[in-house]
Every structure is written in C-alpha cells, then in structure tokens.
Amino acid sequence: MSVVGAVAGVLLGIAALLVCLRLALGPSVLDRLVSMDVLLSVTACGIGAYAAVTRDSTVVPVLVVVSLLGFVGSASVARFIPRDAPQQPKPARSRQPRQPRRPRRSRR
Amino acid sequence: MTTFFDALAGLLVLTGCLLTLLAGVGLVRFPDVLSRMHAATKPQTLGLLCVVAGAGIRLHRSVDVWMLVLVAAFQLVTAPVSGHLVARMAYRTRHVRSDLLVADELRPDLEAAGIEPGPGRRPPRRGRQG
C-alpha cells in the first residue's frame, strides 16, 4: 500500500504543477477559476488517497469541507465576474448629448 | 480476501490520481475555456468518486463510509452547477472561440430573441429606447 501512496503522490504532484502552470499563464479570469477548481480537486484526491493509504479517518471531515469549499468559491467568483470584462481594449466611446429623461414607469 | 480488497482500493486510488493528472495535462494543452472545462471536470466527479470509493473500502467504519458517501453526493450535486455558471459566464464574456465550435445552438436562439451575445451588451429593456 505504501507503493500506491508513493505513486499517487507523484501523480498528484505532477498534476498540481501543471495546474499551477495554467493558473499562472491563464489568459482570463475564467481559466484561473477553472484551474483553481482543479487544484481543489487535486487537494481532495490527495486527502482521500492519504486516508486510504494510512487508514487514518481523522482527515475525512476535511474532505467534506474541501468539497463544499470548491463549490462555494467557484460559484461566487463566476457570479461576480463583471459581465463586460473586455478581452481587447474598447474603442473610445464618443460622448453624446444626453437625451431628456422620460418619466420612469413603475419599477419591477 | 483482505489482500484482494486492498488491491482493489489501491487500484481505485491510482485511477483517481491518474484522472487528476490527465486533467492537469488537458488544462495546459487545450485552447479555450470550454475545452479546459471539459478536461477539468474529470477529476471533479469521476476521479474524486474513485478515490472516495478506495478510501471507503480501506476505512470500512460506518461513520467514515457515510461521510465519504456525503462527499460523493455533494460533489455530484455541486459540480454541474458550478460548471454551468462558469460556462455561461464564458459564453457571455466571449471567451469561447467560435471557430473551434462544431455546433453553437445558443446563438440562433439569442439572435431570434434580439440579444447580441458579447461584452457590454445587455438585453434591451422594455420602456427605454436608445
């Protein structure tokens, strides 16, 4: 079983390195968000593999916390990304005279 | 019999770790957000389920096994939701490379509804023109 632990550690370490590469390179916020998600699931897989190899059940609640944290983090960040995050710089907007405001209808 | 179960648990753990490694490789190599998400969702569900199954076989106290079932259930419920949110935000902020898409079924619907998908354009509100 210790061989399994060593091999799993190597695989997860390489995976975490690759994910960190994408986290550093990632051109947009969403790439970094996806790679943070994968980094959390690498963490969860590592905790589960540790629990399986050492038969140590004290880390199992941590696994629950990590799996919930991944959802909350990615959902909230994806929710609060500004919708018009520009990929290329916008052309300068010409100022137009403001139109007189109409009386507002009932608020929805 | 114990050896058999240990071997099974080890195989499941290694499968999960291998899926995680594949996700890392795919995350580095794939070209845009949607295809990277395709790679990234493998360890979130299947990889974690494999590792959790292996840990459940090795731990086999009922408290721990129930907690591991809870982890698997949480992951199965929450991973599609967060994936949906991220993919929708990727489409709206135009991080999808449309030259790589085989089919884009959302665009005709958006055009029929008069909504231009893209940065800064909101769906037109009623009662305000210009």
UniProtKB/TrEMBL annotation, chain A:
Annotated Basic residues bias: 92-108
Record's bilayer topology term: Multi-pass membrane protein
The keyword Cell membrane is annotated on this UniProt entry: yes
Membrane-crossing segments per the record: 6-25, 34-53, 59-81
Sorted UniProt keywords: Cell membrane, Membrane, Transmembrane, Transmembrane helix, Transport
InterPro entries in the cross-refs: MrpF/PhaF-like (IPR007208)
Segments for region (Disordered): 82-108
Subcellular location(s) per record: Cell membrane
Pfam families for this protein: MrpF_PhaF
Family label: Belongs to the CPA3 antiporters (TC 2.A.63) subunit F family.
Record NCBIfam families: PRK07948.1
The protein's name in its UniProt record: Multisubunit sodium/proton antiporter MrpF subunit
Organism for this UniProt entry: Motilibacter deserti
Lineage of the species this protein comes from: Bacteria, Bacillati, Actinomycetota, Actinomycetes, Motilibacterales
TrEMBL record, chain B:
Key words of the record: Membrane, Transmembrane, Transmembrane helix
Family annotation (InterPro entries): PhaG_MnhG_YufB
Pfam families: PhaG_MnhG_YufB (PF03334)
Region listing for Disordered, in residue ranges: 111-130
TM stretches of this protein: 6-28, 65-87
Highest taxon listed in the record's lineage: Bacteria
NCBIfam families given in the database record: CPA3_mnhG_phaG (TIGR01300), PRK12674.1-2 (NF009314)
Family the entry assigns: Belongs to the CPA3 antiporters (TC 2.A.63) subunit G family.
Matching PANTHER family: ANTIPORTER SUBUNIT MNHG2-RELATED
Protein name as it appears in the record: Monovalent cation/H(+) antiporter subunit G
Record organism: Motilibacter deserti
